[in-house]
Amino acid sequence: MKWRDRKQSTHVDDRRGRSGGGGGRGLPSIGTLMFLWPIVKPLLRSKLGIAVVGIGAAAYFIGPSLLGMGGSSSSSDIDPNSEDAAFIKTVHGDIETVWAKIFAQAGQRYPVPELVLYTGSTSSGCGPASSRMGPFYCPADTKIYVDMGFFDDLKNKHGAGGDFARAYVLAHEVGHHIQNLEGTLDKVETAKHRVTGNDKNQLQVRVELQADCYAGVWANHVQKQFKALEPGDLEEALTAAASIGDDRLQKQAQGFAIPHTFTHGSSKQRVEWFARGVKNGRVQDCQTFGG
């Protein structure tokens, strides 16, 4: 991805290198969470009640609507002035520019979400944040939380390397911010109280697939505005989308997939919805809820 010589976002809280601030203990692995879910589910819903949104399966097991990337990161200490940080801050700036223009065309103002970069653990408006949660969006404080060690795991554990894979991850989280602004997240949480079991999971899948589609919309526009894409970039994003499908993550964790427990969509679904957003760059093409 061509990104140098463009402005970096100023809406970034770089907490890397600071002490944890509320999330010191690690979280269990995806596989462990899956097997413990029938036990911890009622406790989580009665005692935590948090709402966080992200891109992978692990997040779902921490709260009713935890919208996070899933998986875990090695959380190595990173130089606050590193090139990786410069890249992700520039991508956040690109995302601001694209969505501000889309909102302006609809006669609206785009409130920019703050990006929090941290190491190991930190605090969030949705409770303690750990690197093991993966990137996530917290609707309570409208912030996106990223331990950048996650990107090493995305490459080394899931085979999804490349700079545009990282850009896709951030664009997905901003997709949840768009849903929050649209009122979609609140509507889904209300709808979940009227259904049970698999129907709740399906609602959450639709939330995640729409965020994937919004990430595709951004990819379309960032190419139009900045000519930012290089050969292979879209393939990197598609590989990342496929690598964090529920079916693939479950097979990695326990050797088999359980479709009715999916909360983020299969690899095929995630790829298809991201590609749909890329094709025409139209928000209206992202109607995962029908219509």
From TrEMBL:
It is found in: Membrane. This is Metalloprotease. The chain crosses the membrane at residues 48-67. Keywords: Membrane, Transmembrane, Transmembrane helix. It comes from the Bacteria. Residues 1-25 are annotated as: Disordered. It holds the Pfam family Zn_peptidase. It is a single-pass membrane protein. It comes from Cocleimonas flava. One of its GO terms (cellular component) is membrane. The lineage of its organism: Bacteria, Pseudomonadati, Pseudomonadota, Gammaproteobacteria, Thiotrichales. Residues 1-17 have a biased composition (Basic and acidic residues). The keyword Amino-acid biosynthesis does not apply.
